[in-house]
Amino acid sequence: MFTYDPVLFSRILTELTLTFHIIYATIGVGVPLMIAIAQWVGIRKKDEHYILLARRWTRGFVITVAVGVVTGTAIGLQLSLLWPNFMNLAGQVISLPLFMETFAFFFEAIFLGIYLYTWDRFNDQKKHFLLLIPVAIGSSASALFITIVNAFMNTPQGFELKNGVITNIQPLVAMFTPAMPTKVAHVLTTAYMTSAFVLASIAAYHLFKGNRHPYHKKALHLTMKAALIFSLATIVVGDLSGKFLAKYQPEKLAAAEWHFETSTYAPLVLFGTLDDNKEVKNAIKIPYALSILAYNRPGAEVTGLNDIPKEEQPPLYIHYLFNLMVLIGIWLTVIAALYWAGMKKGLAFTMKKSFLMQLVLSGPLAMLAIEIGWYFTEVGRQPWILRGYMKTAEAATKSAHVDTLLVVFSLLYVVLGIASVVVLTKMFRNNPVERELEERALNQGGVSS
Fold this sequence. Notes:
This protein is mainly alpha-helical. Helices cover about 70% and strands about 5% of the residues. It contains 16 helices and eight strands. A two-stranded antiparallel sheet has the order 1-2. α4 packs antiparallel against α6 and α9 crosses α10. The protein is globular and about 70 Å long.
């Protein structure tokens, strides 16, 4: 017989909200930078195509910001409703970055509004471009501050807990935890990378459908170059993240790699299965690679799960999450590198339909990797919500109505998702690039191309 469990429903609702929100949050962080790059290239080259890229991306970006505000508000509401014990404890310590995240969003939103409604009011495009700088800074700062909160949950510090009472609170110490540098760097680089791939996949789709307008070719070229740069940056940050886990969250690294016995010369395990005795079967093992990932030395000793108390071990299925995240990231980097090399050498394969289809798929794959990465981050911290201090089951509400909230918010996300897709589709379908270029050329007394 089904038994109502508020902890389970709280976890499902939080996971659902984050799954939906992270799509808009990632775009919200990365797209402003891409808009700024496009407009700057357009100004520097005096190329109307790049200027129009910035303009059209901005219109779409505004829609995602509107939906992101709703889902972000839902997360804040759910933290208080679903995880009151956590907020009572952590809210006293880590409230500063939560406040700063709100400030950063308003900073971004104010300048975004000014930027959006002053497109044709500047004779000098460089002055208009300056309005984008605070937008890009604000969006990245917002991600920085909210990621600081998540980093605190993984390596909490800056307070003392005595008999359930928090004392000696140091807000700045709580903000600058050991997890902060790698987590912030990983969130920012992957957001920039994913946004570049999403925009590239849109351009590739038009080319795949046979529209070989120079606008789409320039859009693809710009976004794929950015995607390659941020893909390589993500690999570097990912390596640093592995070293962080080895030092501060060894149980998470061990579970991700199905590394049970503490040993030197530890191999990296890819996929495979576990039998009843937790023996790894049918896996690809790369010799010494886990020791190198963790400590840069093939002979380094890596802590195994058997040395971690059983009640503090993360679920072992995070192994597959980690593998999928890494493999998608590597594939995207390879695709971006192939495109760059092909364009550099003038090879025809970059415009062939088979390769363009890979580029079309790169956006959804990048977003999938983002989702998987967040599942890995959050599930890999279990059973803790605040590592070493409070377990997830201790933090949840005891309310009897979480299942009702789950239904209500699920309907909200369905409505928001459908509405945003419909609005974005109609916005661009009813205003194609060719028509907009002609109208702008007439308004400027020139000739479209």
